Amino acid sequence: MNAFSTTGLSKRFRRKWALRDCSLAIPRGRVAALVGPNGAGKTTLLRLAVGLIRPTAGEVTAAGAVAFLSQEKPLYQGFTLAETMRFGRELNPSWDGDLATARIAELGLSPKSKIGALSGGQRAQVALTLVLAKRPELLVLDEPLSNLDPLARHEVMRALMAAVADSGMTVLLSSHVVSDLENTCDWLVVLNRGRVQVSGAVDDLVDEHRLLTGPAAEVDAVAARTEVVDRADAARQSTLLVNGDPGPLSPQWTRRAVGLEDLVLAYLRSPDAAALPRPTLTSA
Amino acid sequence: MLWLTFRQHRAQVAATAALLVAIGTALLVNAATATVDDAGFGVLAPLMTWLPILPVAVGVFWGAPLVAAEHERGTALLAWTQSVSRDRWVAVKLALLGTAVTAGGLLFGVMVQAWLDHYAGIPEANRFAHGYFVLTGVVPGLWWLFAFLLGAALGAVLRRTVAAMAVTVGALLVVMLALTRLRGYYVDPVLVPMDGPFDGQVFAGADRWLFVKPVLGPSAAVPGMLVQPADRYWRFQWTEAAILGTASLALAGAAVAAVRRRA
């Protein structure tokens, strides 16, 4: 069962396509990372996901209630913390007041403190509280860690993961820093130049890809036997990042597992490569 | 939404309430202390000529920031991603705040009328004259509402508070001047002929007319004055209220459409 899916999703701003023919599905309960360079269309995809903007073509489907935290983590600066939580309660029937109160207490903040007087990290935590207490089934976060110091990044991520463990909700979060996501996300979507390049479970992607290093003389023969994502040729030695199994290799070759960050970089360097789920028949 | 609307706009509510109290107090004190003769009217009358521009303040401080400030501070992304739809968000805000400014304008009109009634003997204390026509009856309520919705619609379209404020001021002044010109012709004016030197006191109710324009010179078959008689006051009040009310509805529609637009 998918928590979130798009089919042929496209968005054009004036003459420029921000997103083209994007089809992807994220199963329920996953923590999905949406990565890609600046201008890849991440924010456009997320805003389409939560209905802030309308698609030019295609469809977005989200199962259940959706909460959204935008990159700027907007809050009303003049409100107190208590008023901010009241804002959440008044505008959301599914508001979980106990969760909000517990999180504010955990942060060690007084309900009377003004939002404008909080630090960037505290404000991010308050903004996160506001979306978590809505008890959404799908939580969409646009660059939740941007503009935060390393400690605050860690704490926001930890709070998010604790909430996921408690509620089993699906999370879709964007970032251009892959290392932030390495140990927290179990689904990866790579977006590049407005197109989806990769979408799949992190474990499967890591299993399916490998790094092969061997003599330059044999590299073409090996490359022909499998799908090459990225290739680096030196004078005597070549390195291939491949998707699939090339079969038996001569002893001069070494194979290594590939990390998430290398995988993402390899795809971003080769915009024509793709690792997408092949069409499968699903039982209804 | 009721709480949120009040919380976000309580400064405007408080400032407007304080202004109404101040104006009311000034009018009351003036009327109460000037019972011996009618000199008190002359004290306040010059200040009263400034009050027709009050709707400009309503448009600038109530209307323009309503949506524009949410865009400018990025909080539109917060306000419009809650369970309450953005249609409902804008509808509730326009309805609640529109009701509040209309009530404020009507209360203001009642206060000015009471003050004018105190000086019933003075020809200048004429509720049908342009300056007082927009300060009495139902018209001030509609002017305040119109100004609020004009500011709100401009703010929703321009998405910049200061720009919306500036355009609101300009647009309101144009509409005010235009309606002041047009007002004499809501109904065909009546020609009051002048036989010999004109003496205003000859005609019953002459000091409660809306003066339109003189008809003089060699081309005039019957020299005289085009006026709107005093008994047309309420007909004119409702005519202007209908004009402003219709425009207000259109502006509310434009504001809602601008908020709904998801480019």
Automatic annotation (TrEMBL), chain A:
<protein>
    <submittedName>
        <fullName>ABC-2 type transport system ATP-binding protein</fullName>
    </submittedName>
</protein>
<feature type="domain" description="ABC transporter">
    <location>
        <begin position="4"/>
        <end position="218"/>
    </location>
</feature>
<dbReference type="Pfam" id="PF00005">
    <property type="entry name" value="ABC_tran"/>
</dbReference>
<dbReference type="InterPro" id="IPR027417">
    <property type="entry name" value="P-loop_NTPase"/>
</dbReference>
<dbReference type="GO" id="GO:0016887">
    <property type="term" value="F:ATP hydrolysis activity"/>
</dbReference>
<dbReference type="InterPro" id="IPR003593">
    <property type="entry name" value="AAA+_ATPase"/>
</dbReference>
<keyword id="KW-0067">ATP-binding</keyword>
<dbReference type="InterPro" id="IPR051782">
    <property type="entry name" value="ABC_Transporter_VariousFunc"/>
</dbReference>
<keyword id="KW-0813">Transport</keyword>
<dbReference type="InterPro" id="IPR003439">
    <property type="entry name" value="ABC_transporter-like_ATP-bd"/>
</dbReference>
<keyword id="KW-0547">Nucleotide-binding</keyword>
<dbReference type="GO" id="GO:0005524">
    <property type="term" value="F:ATP binding"/>
</dbReference>
UniProtKB/TrEMBL annotation, chain B:
<feature type="transmembrane region" description="Helical">
    <location>
        <begin position="47"/>
        <end position="69"/>
    </location>
</feature>
<keyword id="KW-0472">Membrane</keyword>
<feature type="transmembrane region" description="Helical">
    <location>
        <begin position="128"/>
        <end position="150"/>
    </location>
</feature>
<keyword id="KW-1133">Transmembrane helix</keyword>
<keyword id="KW-0812">Transmembrane</keyword>
<feature type="transmembrane region" description="Helical">
    <location>
        <begin position="90"/>
        <end position="116"/>
    </location>
</feature>
<protein>
    <recommendedName>
        <fullName>ABC-2 family transporter</fullName>
    </recommendedName>
</protein>
<feature type="transmembrane region" description="Helical">
    <location>
        <begin position="241"/>
        <end position="259"/>
    </location>
</feature>
<feature type="transmembrane region" description="Helical">
    <location>
        <begin position="162"/>
        <end position="182"/>
    </location>
</feature>
<keyword id="KW-0732">Signal</keyword>
<feature type="signal peptide">
    <location>
        <begin position="1"/>
        <end position="31"/>
    </location>
</feature>
